[in-house]
Design goal:
The chain is of the alpha/beta class and 248 residues long. The chain contains 6 helices and 13 strands. It has a 9-stranded mixed β-sheet with strand order 11-10-9-12-8-1-6-7-13, with helices on both faces. A hairpin with a 4-residue loop joins strand 3 and strand 4. Helix 2 packs across helix 5 and helix 3 packs across helix 4.
C-alpha cells in the first residue's frame, strides 16, 4: 500500500503574529514553524500502517525551501521519502491542483490530509483534491483501518460518530482521534540521522491560476482592561453589566 501524507508548514501557536505592508502580508520574522497538528496526527497513523502492514509512506508539501526542515522532521518520524513542490501556496485551489499532480503520477492508494491547517483554517484542500481526482473522500476522520482494498473510517458528526466503509483509492481529512496526542512520535537521534539520507524530491509546480486572493489581514481587537467592582457595590456592577457589557 502506498500512502501520501500532505504536510502543511504552519506557525507554532506560541508565535506572535504580525502583518506587514499595510496588513497585506504575514510577517515571518521570529516565527517558529511546525508540522500542522492535524497533519501530524495523519502522519502518525500512516507510520502505524507502515509498521503493521508494510505501507510505503511519502510526505508532500507545497512550499519554499523554508519548509524543508518540517519535511525532514516528518522523515525523522518515519516517512520513507518526501516531496516538496517548489511554490508559494497562494490558496486552497492552487495547493489542491499541485497535490493532484503528485497523486496522479505516484499511484497512491491512500492520501491522508489534515482536515484543515492551523494557520488559515480553510478546510478546502482535502475535498478539492478528492474532486479533482474523483477519489472517495471522508472528512473529519477520527478512526481509520485498512483491510485489503477496503477502508473502515470513523468520522465525527453532529451528536455522534458515523462509521463508513469505502474502497481504495481514498482521501481522508484527518484530525485528533485518528491517533491520540500520546501516540505522536518524537524523532529520536537514529531517526534524525536516517532522515539525512532519505530522498527529498523537489518538483516544479504546474501552471495554475489562483482562484482567490487575500486582500488584507486583521487581528482581533485587543481586550479591554478589566474593571474591578467592590463586593458591596452591587448597583455599580448592575450598571456596568447593563450599560457597558450590555449582557443584561
Amino acid at each position: 500500500m502506498k500512502i501520501l501524507v500532505c504536510i502543511s508548514h504552519v506557525p507554532d501557536t506560541t508565535s506572535k503574529i504580525n502583518f506587514v505592508n499595510g496588513d497585506t502580508e504575514f510577517d515571518t520574522n521570529g516565527v517558529q514553524y511546525v508540522i500542522n497538528p492535524n497533519d501530524e496526527f495523519g502522519l502518525t497513523r500512516a507510520i502505524w500502517f507502515q509498521e503493521q502492514q508494510g505501507a510505503q509512506v511519502t510526505v508532500v508539501n507545497v512550499g519554499g525551501t523554508d519548509s524543508e526542515a518540517t519535511l525532514r522532521k516528518a522523515l525523522a518520524i518515519g516517512a520513507n521519502e518526501a516531496i516538496r513542490i517548489n511554490a508559494t501556496p497562494t490558496d486552497g485551489f492552487y495547493v489542491a491542483k499541485q497535490l493532484a499532480e503528485v497523486v496522479k503520477s505516484g499511484g497512491y492508494d491512500l492520501v491522508i490530509c489534515g482536515k484543515e491547517s492551523l494557520d488559515y483554517n480553510g478546510g478546502m484542500v482535502p475535498g478539492m483534491l478528492a474532486s479533482l481526482l474523483d477519489y472517495n473522500f471522508v472528512n473529519s476522520c477520527t478512526e481509520l483501518s485498512i483491510e485489503g482494498t477496503t477502508a473502515k473510517v470513523g468520522r465525527e458528526i453532529d451528536g455522534g460518530k458515523e462509521i463508513i466503509s469505502a474502497s481504495l483509492p481514498l482521501i481522508v481529512g484527518g484530525q485528533k482521534g485518528i491517533v491520540e496526542e500520546r501516540d505522536l512520535r518524537i524523532p529520536n537521534m537514529r531517526g534524525i540521522m536516517t532522515a539525512r539520507t532519505k530522498v527529498l524530491t523537489i518538483l516544479e509546480p504546474i501552471a495554475v491560476e489562483a482562484a482567490t486572493k487575500g486582500v488584507k489581514y486583521e487581528k482581533p481587537a485587543a481586550k479591554s482592561a478589566v474593571k474591578l467592582v467592590a463586593a458591596d457595590q452591587l448597583d455599580e456592577l448592575i450598571q456596568l453589566l447593563h450599560n457597558e457589557a450590555k449582557v443584561i
